[in-house]
Task: inverse folding
């Protein structure tokens, strides 16, 4: 679908969007939006895009190129910053050549004076519409080039007036904010050495007041697990752009003659149907291009021991927990932190990856065998990049700590970071993990990372990049040796969630906050970039460990359904009634798992901001959850209009979950619910549900309704 429009323009097309690139004098995106399939001549494009030159500025037109250059007259934020010992600080790149290979356009540019070249790689996935972009810089100069920044820049249209960004903290990931894009920039910088809770490397721009279901929107995500910077700017001439990249520390990258640096990949998507369109494209792209899941294997339901027993590991008791878990329908049992030598709290033992034989005198295998005999897979927690000062490893190798010599070592969660760029340290960790996986039937590893990098130096130079790449290498090497083992990316919850880590892992631990009310927002925002099957969603204890709030099983169960489901508590201590309820939700999840993990996720716009209406659908069915987060804004709920249904089909309505209610805020239910409660069938035409909508009951705060619509055979 891609085509050379002329010697100077290339157009890439997907089912949803088109990208038109002008190649010279320097590569520039002239269009990135709704698919245009009939633009074919250079003169047509040139006639319409040629810009005026304003008074009192440079006498030439200055494009916002794919790597804006201060030397060309782009007075905004440069795509490249660096120098050869102070020289060549403002290079100007000229297009030299390009190749178009299917969906992929590669453009070469050079500055002959500075002896630097850049290669820009653009790929528009024709199926999902996701555009991937990366950029490389090569130094052809005899002098070393100190690289300070090589950013990815994408222009956005004037009508992109708002940016939605995502910030957070431990136990409160992915909170969204909106900012106007006008006269200046919205910026964000992450220097924490991991993807971070604080600033997700992604944003969405769109027209004023875009919503889940309406508006033109563009999403951007940088696939990188280290430091990053973001900028969304309206220039003084009104043109605007998104710019992002790896945030390099001083002196972090120095290129010798012939060496090159390649940026992380920027993923962008476009939708003219609001955020739901972006969800659809991003999910499709991740499913087809990022994830390495066995498509034929359903995602097993988890039980994770963390909030159940913390560091108190007793194998007999754990076996009892496993037996209860199996009864409830759990398919994978994971022992969390606390299994290795001396790990009785979070103050000691990280780095000493041998079993605590005081806790497990007969080894781990009897527990694993018990779990396997119950028909479940076994998983285990590790945190390989870390070391406690109180550990045999630290006592033997204090020099393996990632730090800057002679500066104080500051601990975080009582731990320090190991320098994975030291080959002996890397090999030590690899062998610990390899031995663990070789000696036990372990199907799943929860790979945690619980602190930021402070003063991260290798050979006295800044080393966030080196550490990030070494982390990838360690995971890759382990996966190479144990390809069947699945890995969860966890970093105090959702502190390391991005597409680059997802290429080598299988799901995320979304948040340490299992409070279902908080999870409603966290999961909904995560779902803009990640499909539900990679988001760990667990039913936690009724009394949330992080917020101290108390929630019914209705809210906890329905909230955990829409992800990779699990349970995180001690089933032995739970009441028979609660255990039955866990079993019910697990069963419900399994029943709808295929739809949940392959269908189209959506969120409905509501005039009442206290409710979340969301679901998943495919050609024959739709699952809808309505979560009433707080006291409703209005006394009658807005009917739901399901515009994704087939208007010619008849749908049967099945009420999967009707929350309890007292006399409080509702006298009686809408008619269709009364009919279902008296075991009458309710069938409604798609066109009616699409245009008139379904009346809803008035829900008490902190409750969920769950409705299933299934197409009737005609
Ligand atoms: C932080 C994780 O997010 C938790 O789920 C748990 O694994 C603890 N670490 C264990 O130390």
Result:
């Amino acid at each position: 679908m891609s085509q050379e429009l002329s010697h100077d323009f290339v157009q890439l097309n997907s089912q949803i969007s088109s990208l038109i690139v002008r190649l010279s004098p320097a590569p520039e995106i002239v269009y990135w939006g709704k698919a245009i399939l009939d633009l074919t001549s250079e003169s047509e494009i040139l006639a319409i895009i040629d810009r005026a030159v304003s008074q009192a500025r440079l006498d030439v037109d200055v494009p916002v190129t794919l790597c804006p250059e201060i030397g060309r007259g782009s007075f905004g934020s440069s795509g490249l910053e660096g120098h050869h010992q102070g020289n060549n600080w403002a290079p100007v790149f000229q297009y030299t050549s390009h190749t178009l290979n299917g969906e992929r356009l590669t453009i070469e540019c050079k500055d002959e004076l500075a002896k630097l070249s850049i290669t820009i790689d653009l790929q528009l996935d024709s199926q999902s519409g996701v555009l991937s972009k990366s950029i490389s810089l090569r130094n052809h100069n005899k002098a070393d080039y100190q690289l300070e920044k090589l950013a990815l820049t994408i222009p956005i249209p004037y009508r992109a007036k708002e940016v939605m960004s995502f910030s957070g903290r431990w136990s409160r990931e992915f909170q969204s904010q909106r900012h106007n894009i006008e006269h200046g920039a919205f910026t964000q910088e992450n220097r924490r050495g991991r993807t971070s809770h604080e600033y997700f490397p992604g944003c969405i721009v769109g027209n004023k007041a875009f919503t889940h279901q309406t508006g033109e929107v563009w999403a951007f995500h940088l696939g990188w697990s280290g430091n990053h910077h973001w900028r969304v700017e309206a220039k003084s001439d009104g043109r605007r752009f998104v710019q992002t990249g790896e945030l390099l520390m001083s002196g972090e990258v120095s290129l010798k003659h012939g060496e090159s640096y390649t940026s992380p990949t920027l993923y962008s998507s476009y939708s003219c149907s609001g955020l739901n369109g972006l969800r659809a494209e991003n999910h499709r792209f991740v499913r087809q291009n990022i994830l390495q899941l066995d498509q034929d294997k359903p995602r097993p339901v988890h039980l994770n021991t963390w909030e159940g027993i913390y560091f108190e590991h007793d194998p007999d008791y754990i076996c009892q927990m496993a037996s209860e878990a199996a009864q409830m329908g759990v398919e994978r049992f994971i022992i969390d932190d606390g299994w290795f030598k001396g790990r009785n709290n979070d103050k000691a033992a990280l780095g000493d990856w041998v079993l605590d034989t005081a806790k497990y005198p007969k080894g781990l295998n009897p527990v694993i065998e018990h779990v396997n005999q119950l028909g479940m897979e076994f998983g285990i927690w590790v945190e390989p990049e870390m070391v406690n000062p109180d550990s045999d490893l630290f006592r033997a190798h204090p020099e393996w700590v990632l730090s800057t010599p002679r500066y104080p070592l500051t601990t975080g969660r009582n731990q320090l970071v190991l320098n994975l760029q030291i080959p002996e340290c890397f090999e030590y960790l690899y062998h610990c993990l390899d031995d663990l996986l070789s000696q036990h039937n372990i199907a799943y590893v929860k790979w945690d990372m619980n602190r930021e990098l402070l003063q991260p130096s290798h050979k006295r130079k800044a080393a966030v990049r080196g550490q990030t790449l070494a982390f990838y290498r360690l995971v890759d090497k382990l996966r190479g040796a144990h390809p069947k083992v699945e890995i969860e990316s966890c970093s105090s919850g959702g502190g390391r969630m991005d597409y680059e880590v997802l290429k080598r892992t299988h799901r995320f631990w979304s948040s340490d906050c299992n409070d279902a009310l908080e999870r409603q927002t966290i999961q909904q925002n995560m779902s803009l970039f990640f499909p539900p099957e990679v988001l760990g969603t667990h039913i936690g204890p009724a009394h949330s460990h992080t917020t101290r709030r108390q929630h019914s099983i209705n809210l906890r169960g329905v909230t955990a359904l829409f992800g990779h489901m699990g349970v995180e508590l001690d089933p032995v201590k739970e009441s028979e009634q609660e255990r039955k309820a866990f079993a019910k939700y697990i069963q419900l999840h399994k029943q709808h798992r295929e739809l949940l993990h392959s269908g189209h996720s959506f969120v409905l716009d509501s005039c009442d901001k206290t409710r979340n209406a969301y679901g998943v659908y495919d050609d024959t069915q739709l699952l809808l959850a309505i979560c009433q987060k707080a006291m409703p804004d209005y006394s009658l709920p807005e009917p739901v209009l399901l515009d994704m249904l087939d208007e010619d089909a008849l749908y049967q309505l099945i009420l999967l979950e009707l929350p309890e209610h007292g006399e409080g805020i509702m006298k009686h239910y809408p008619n269709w619910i009364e009919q279902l409660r008296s075991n009458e069938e309710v069938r409604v035409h798609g066109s009616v549900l699409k245009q008139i909508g379904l009346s809803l009951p008035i829900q008490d705060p902190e409750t969920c309704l769950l409705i299933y619509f299934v197409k009737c055979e005609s």
User: Anything to note?
Assistant: The radius of gyration is 27 Å. The chain has a mean pLDDT of 96. Residues 576-598 form the longest helix (23 residues). The chain has three domains: 9-46+62-290, 308-386+431-450+483-599, 602-711.
